[in-house]
Amino acid sequence: MTGAAELPETSASAPVTVVAALKEADPSERRVALVPADVARLTGAGMRVVIEESAGTAAWFPDADYAKAGASVLSRSDLLAEADVILLVGTAPEEVVTATRQGQTLVGTLQPLLAPQLAARLADRGVTAVSMDSLPRTLSRAQSMDSLTSQASIAGYKAVLIAANEFARYVPMLMTAAGTTPPASVLVLGVGVAGLQAIGTARRLGAVVSAYDVRPETREQVLSLGARFVDLRSVPDAAGEGGYARALTAEEQLAQQSELDDHIATHDIVITTAQVPGHRPPRLVSAEAVARMRAGSVIVDMAASALGGNVELSKPGATTVTANGVTIAAPLNLPAMVATGASMAYSHNIARLLLSMVRDGRVVIDLDDEIQAAVVITFDGKVVHPATNALLAAPSTPVPAQS
Ligand code: NAD
Known about the structure:
Bound molecules: nicotinamide-adenine-dinucleotide
Strand order of the largest sheet: 4-3-2-5-6-7-19-20
Number of strands: 20
Largest sheet: 8 strands, mixed
Oligomer: single chain
Strand content: 15-25%
Mean pLDDT: 93
Shape: globular
Helix content: 25-40%
Number of helices: 13
Structural class: alpha/beta
C-alpha cells in the first residue's frame, strides 16, 4: 500500500472528525488516554472531542474539566456511535471491538506482536488500528509520541518509591542525635528507560546505587548519573538490534545469574527492569540469590507479568515476603499508580501522534510515512503491519523463553 488515503466519511451527523476517549475497561487501570489540557489541541486542528463519562475521574480529571476544555461528555454507547477515532490507553476490550464499525480508527496500546488475532479481527471489521507501542523509538520526529518511553520512565520512578516504602530503614544516610544510619544500597538490573529513571530517583533519595545491563553503552549512562556500573565477565556484550538487548544463550544466562548472585546478596534494594523484545523477560534473580539477601531487603520486579519476570520468586501483581525476610513486589501496572502524571504524558504522546496523521481535520493514512508505516496495524480491511502479518501466517507459537 502506498500513497495517502483519506478515510471514508462515517456519519452524516458528524461533519467533522469526532475523536473519542474511552474509560478504560480494566478497573485497575486508572489512566485516561486524553486529558483536558490536550482537548484544545485537537479541536484547534478541526476535530470534535468527546469523552466517556467519568473516563478521567480515577486520574483526577473530572468530567467538568473536559467540558470546560471544549469536549462533550457522553455515555459509552453514544460515544461509540459517534466516534470516528477511538483513543485508549491499553488494548481494546471485547465490547469495544464488537461495537466498532467500518471506517473507525482505534488508537491504543494494542500489542499486536502479543495479540495478532486482535489485529485480524479489527481488519475484518474495517477498522484502522493504530498501536502506540509500535512507534519507531529512535526517530527524533517521533519522540514526543513515544508512550513506551514516557510510561517506562514513570514506572522506573514509582518502582523506587515502592521499594523505599517497603524498606524499613531510611534510604539516605542520616546523622542524627539518635545515631547515624548508612544509606541504602540499591542495585538496578537493566538500564533502559525505566532503569535510568530508577537510578536517578534512587540517587535523589540518597541511596548508593549500582547498576548493570548487558548493553555496553549503558556503562557511560550509569556513570553519568553518579552510580557504579557492575561489570560481569560472563556476558561481555549482548547488544541486539535497534538499541535493544539480544536474548542470552542458556549458558550465558546461567553464568550471568551465578555471577549476579554475589552482587544481589550485598544490596538492600534490587530493582529489575530487564526486557528482550519478543521474548519472556530474562531471569536475573534466582531463588538462591534471594536466600542470600539480608532480612529486610526489598526487590521490585518491574518485568513481572503473566509471561514471568526477572525474579524467580516474584508473583505477578502481588507483594510477598520470603522465609528469610525479603520483600518481593511485582506490581503489574506501575504507570497506573501515578495516574495523573502518566495520563498527562500519554495524552501528550497520543495527541501528537494523532495530529501528525490529520490533514484538514481528517485522519489521512499514509503508509509511506515512516511513523505511520510502523504504527498502523490494519487498514482498508487488511493487516498491513508486516511483523503482525508474519505472526498471523505462522503456526501459533508461545512467546519464546530466553534460551
Ligand atoms: P527494554 O524495556 O527493552 O529493556 C530494558 C533493559 O533491559 C534494556 O536496557 C536491556 O538492555 C536490558 N536487558 C535485557 N536483557 C538483559 C539481561 N539479561 N541482563 C541485564 N539487562 C538486560 O528497553 P527500553 O527501556 O525500551 O530501551 C530500549 C532501547 O531503546 C535503549 O537502547 C534505549 O536507549 C532506546 N531508546 C531510545 C530512545 C530515543 O532514541 N529517543 C527512546 C527510548 C528508548
